[in-house]
Write a structure and sequence with these properties.
It is built from 6 helices and no strands. The longest helix is centred in the middle third of the chain and has 30 residues.
Length: 143
């Protein structure tokens, strides 16, 4: 009788936090477009808060990734280097964008803030492509 013996895997903690910045930064692009079309200051405020929330959860994702590096049970499920670099670039772009959005009115969003939000969104999409193409395989052994 053959039995499958598997490795004891731990769930990577960083995967709990990474979706929040991606969603927040994507919605910041949507609210920047809304501000560009309506010039309603509420949309600029929404963008600023979304950028802040995304950066906060991005920092939590980095802390969780450091913890995952220490945990041997997450070794097989760790992110690839292109994923990590993409995530860092997303956070850097959003950080710069947050400073741009700290300005007042139209010049805080159009054109620089809107361009940074679009660049952040495109980088998110590329990072997701890298994540989808990464090969994470589990080694099952039969005795």
């Amino acid at each position: 009788m053959q039995t499958l013996q598997h490795h004891r895997l731990g769930y990577p903690l960083q995967r709990l936090f990474v979706p929040f910045p991606f969603v927040s930064f994507s919605l910041a692009l949507a609210t920047d477009i809304a501000y560009w079309q309506t010039v309603n200051l509420m949309w600029q405020n929404f963008s600023s808060w979304l950028l802040f929330a995304g950066l906060l959860f991005g920092a939590l994702a980095i802390l969780a990734a450091i913890i995952d590096l220490i945990r041997p049970s997450t070794r097989l499920l760790r992110s690839s280097l292109p994923e990590v670099l993409g995530f860092v670039i997303v956070l850097v772009l959003a950080f710069i964008n947050s400073f741009v959005h700290a300005g007042d009115g139209w010049t805080a969003v159009v054109p620089t803030g809107l361009a940074l939000s679009a660049a952040t969104f495109v980088t998110i999409l590329l990072t997701l492509v890298f994540a989808a193409r990464s090969k994470r395989t589990l080694n099952w052994s039969t005795p």
